[in-house]
Amino acid sequence: MLRYTIRRLIQLVGVVLVLSLLLFAWMRLLPGGPVSALLGERATPESREALTKQLGLDQPIIVQYFKFLGRAASGDFGVSTGVQPGDSALDIFVQRFPATIELSFFAIVIAILVGVPLGYLAAKRRGGLFDNLSVVGSLIGVAVPVFFLAYVLKDAASAALGLPSFGRQGDINATRVTGFFTLDGIITGEFDATLDALKHLILPAIALATIPFAVIFRITRAAVLDVLDEDFVRTAESKGLTASVIRRRHVLRNSMLPVVTTIGLQTGALLSGAVLTEKVFVIPGVGQALAIGFERRDYPVLLLLIIMATIVYVVVNLLVDLSYALIDPRIRTR
Amino acid sequence: MALLEVRDLTVVFQRRGEEPFRAVDGVSFDVEPGQTVGLVGESGCGKSVTSLAIMGLLPKRGATVTGTVTYDGTDLLKLSDKQMRDKRGSELGMVFQDPLSSLNPVIPIGLQVTEVLERHRGLARKEAMIEAKNLLDKVGIPDPNRRLKEYPHQLSGGMRQRALIAIALACRPKLLIADEPTTALDVTIQAQILAVMKELVQDLGTALVMITHDLGVVAGLCDEVNVLYGGKVVEKADRHPLFAEPRHPYTHGLLASIPRLDAAPGEKLTPIRGSVADNIPWAQGCAFAPRCPNALDVCVQVTPAEEDQLGRLLRCHNPVVPGTPAAEEVPV
Amino acid sequence: MALGVSKKEKIDDLADTAGVSLAASAWKRLRRSPVFLIGATIIGIFIMVSLLSPWLAPHDPSDKMLIEQVVKARNEIPPAQPGHPLGGDLQGRDFFSRLLVGSQQTLIVGVGATLIGLTGGLILGTLAGAIGGWVDSVVMRLVDVMLSLPSLLLAFSIAAMFARPSQFTVILAVAIVQIPVFARLLRGSMLAQRHSDHVLAATALGVKKGAIVFRHMLPNSLSPVIVQSTLVLATAIIEAAALSFLGLGNPDDRIPEWGQMLGDVQNVFDTHPHLAAWPAVCIIIVALGFTLMGETLREALDPKNRR
């Protein structure tokens, strides 16, 4: 198990190095590039050349890349040119990371809490009206552009439910400890702040949760259908066990492996979806920084945030793989 | 009164857009306490469906069960889902065919034994664990304390089947149904498992319904034998007369297709020709007629009734006369 | 230790289902599946409309014929009126015509992205699966790097790399993301076949390697690829909309595309929701149509479901 984890982490380092080199090279090769971004398209050739020299952009790319790696090792990933011009890219990431984690966490919790039970029920009533309706519903869920749904929730649902239509714009006076707004309120005893933070989170979290929900629902349904046909479920029935014990101990436990895998993979959908959702709800998280970064071509920030997103994605999926051993003794004792 | 009286049990499967299929067609038999009754036939003859119908384990949608299954005076088919759950595992036990797939792969053997004790005998987890150890001991699993903590994939095939038997007998059921309990096992293990079952059934006075396609199992275990074909009982007799003088051509064919040690050198095996795919519907005559060496014209015109003839129940227009060899020799 | 299933292995799982022999029985079941027929009808209508839209549209989609109404009413949009059933857009162009003509570019984005992704994946996957050895290692490492990025985020990044976005860069960004998926899919099913009887038989008969790959292995790998292509058609259209929303789409809106129409009106969502709702509903219906077809195809081609 330990060797496997170490091997995967080494692979991750390789992926990050290759990916950063690719991103780095591509950004440097672009027409315009950082010089145009800093000086604008109409700068004089002299000033362009001076800045190029000053930034070390006249050296070979591989040299620039190793210099970049050297600076990166000490936490210097460059300075933002578009998102928060002048700020260090790392600071931007550190400031904005908690908001995105919080949003993604609530979104995946909603997706699991709704998707797994619905998937189980649909499988139990296979072919019935409930099953057919929820399958069609989940297919529509994947077909709706996330940002459109986010706007619908923001404009229509917020008015109807009396919820704030902007994320994390509420109580700026609350004490900050961790940067997680819901958690801070609980730690400091300012429960109003927690409640307020939750109100701000609920609509964006629902918007972000739709695609993971639809996927988790369908995988759960398929997995439960497979397990219901298994002989050991019939054995459990032959023992006269109560329906709830059979559901928990025999059906759901055996259905969880593919579901847990899917939850890991949905981290990807969360990270990409956060870019869209945070833009719509004006949440100052990593996703919003990416959205602005893409629009204004803020390469230092983009480079760092994309690499961080990759690390998060790979690490979450590694944790998911490791959790298999908890679920399935056949992996644990091999 | 018998412990279990099955009367006219009929199971019809109906899948959307398909013809209804009568998997079990008016099956009747009795099981006395302590008696072992065999249900014998090829795969697809309805023997497993019969056992699932008795246990109330058929899917609620798509399967229609009619007739009566009277256990200890109550008709099991009329019980509610909850009442049936109370009977299963406590009074009715069942052992399945494939021990690996019949055990839950992700929970330890111990819990799979104790959960039935906790459910029906109200034991606490600790007491149940002690009882479970005794049970594993009784079915002949060595080092039971260690095995209780292990998972199905860590046990051998024979041990898994022993564990399944321990589970089925945990609450000392009055009736045990064993559906092909030895089919998935090696021949040497088969004998051990049968010995364990025979011993336990005798000790506990449990009535046993043994479902098998293996006439060797029948010969070693059963008091009475029901031979099923196409969902109907075609011959019902005690073990000795059945093996000595099979009357139904199908039973005769089954026995003739087993290799025998006492056969003369050069004597050929006679398999039953064709397959169940050749069956005709019972409504048009005898389902076995297309494969039957004794078939007459009447066999494809009139459905044979279940009649008491030649000292046993028989469903045949032209039974085998004792002493005749199989009508047709097919080289194998 | 071979632990569990990751995204890569999920793709390989898909690749494990193959076989032309399945096609006949699959088609038989599909024809009777109402869900497939609904999907196919949606897509049929969509393709017809997009092909015929230049003749169906009552007006030129780039003609700002109602601009006076916009100017007069101070950036109000022209309401529905005779000859303009859905009114005009922010620049006074006939909204109904734009929706109709928009179907064409949307189809081009979907089909273009799928074809490019498929071709790229076909080349990489065939190289890896057919040649094996170091080629396989290099290709698959590259594929793994691409797959370790969340796919939509990768599409955003690629689109952001182009200094001058256009319809083509949108298609390319969406397509490149699909290349590793198709490559893995093809490689997986080819590897599974390399040791199958019909390929061994062909090899034993002295059939040339190229002929084996193209006549025997590739055709048998197609069914998972067809399923994936159908699903990609849906995602491509949705992702193109997301790109427009982030300002990474085609800035030239003379020839409309649904995703672009939807992304471009983000600042007036609250005041003129219908400008967003119409293209959004069109996208949802068409994406649903492709998904319904893809999912029923997947089920029909899955050997597990064959009876």
From TrEMBL, chain A:
Under InterPro entries, the record lists: BPD_transp_1_N (IPR045621), MetI-like (IPR000515), MetI-like_sf (IPR035906)
**Where are the membrane-spanning stretches?**
12-29, 103-123, 135-153, 201-219, 256-276, 301-327
Q: Which UniProt keywords apply?
A: Cell membrane, Membrane, Transmembrane, Transmembrane helix, Transport
| A Pfam cross-reference name | BPD_transp_1
What GO biological process terms does the UniProt entry carry, in alphabetical order?
A: transmembrane transport
Chain ranges of the ABC transmembrane type-1 domain: 97-320
Question: What is any one of the record's Gene Ontology cellular component terms?
Answer: plasma membrane
Membrane topology, as annotated, equals:
Multi-pass membrane protein
Principal location class:
membrane
The subcellular location is: Cell membrane
Similarity-based family: Belongs to the binding-protein-dependent transport system permease family.
Q: How is this protein named in the record?
A: Peptide/nickel transport system permease protein
Q: From which organism does this entry originate?
A: Lentzea albidocapillata subsp. violacea
UniProtKB/TrEMBL annotation, chain B:
Keyword Nucleotide-binding included in the entry's annotation: yes
Q: Do you know which Pfam families this protein is assigned to? A: ABC_tran (PF00005), oligo_HPY (PF08352)
| Compartment(s) of residence | Cell membrane
Source organism, top-level taxon: Bacteria
InterPro entries of this UniProt entry? AAA+_ATPase (IPR003593), ABC_Ni/Peptide_Import (IPR050388), ABC_transporter-like_ATP-bd (IPR003439), ABC_transporter-like_CS (IPR017871), Oligopep_ABC_C (IPR013563), P-loop_NTPase (IPR027417)
Keywords from the named record: ATP-binding, Cell membrane, Membrane, Nucleotide-binding, Transport
Ranges where the ABC transporter domain occurs: 4-255
* Main location per the UniProt record: membrane
Question: Example GO biological process term?
Answer: peptide transport
* A single GO cellular-component term on record: plasma membrane
How does the entry describe its membrane topology?
A: Peripheral membrane protein
| Family designation | Belongs to the ABC transporter superfamily.
The record ties this protein, via NCBIfam families, to: oligo_HPY (TIGR01727)
Q: What is this protein called?
A: Peptide/nickel transport system ATP-binding protein
Species annotation? Lentzea albidocapillata subsp. violacea
Automatic annotation (TrEMBL), chain C:
**UniProt KW Cell membrane keyword:** yes
Which family is this protein grouped under? Belongs to the binding-protein-dependent transport system permease family.
Superkingdom classification of source: Bacteria
Q: How does it sit in the membrane?
A: Multi-pass membrane protein
Pfam families (alphabetical): BPD_transp_1 (PF00528), OppC_N (PF12911)
PROSITE patterns cross-referenced by the UniProt entry: ABC_TM1
Tell me where it resides.
Cell membrane
List the protein's name: Peptide/nickel transport system permease protein
Tell me yes or no: is Cell membrane among this UniProt entry's keywords.
yes
The residue ranges crossing the membrane are 35-56, 107-135, 142-162, 168-186, 225-248, 276-297
Q: Provide the ABC transmembrane type-1 domain boundaries.
A: 103-294
Q: Which UniProt keywords apply?
A: Cell membrane, Membrane, Transmembrane, Transmembrane helix, Transport
- One GO BP: transmembrane transport
Instruction: Spell out the GO cellular component terms annotated for this protein, sorted alphabetically and separated by semicolons.
Output: plasma membrane
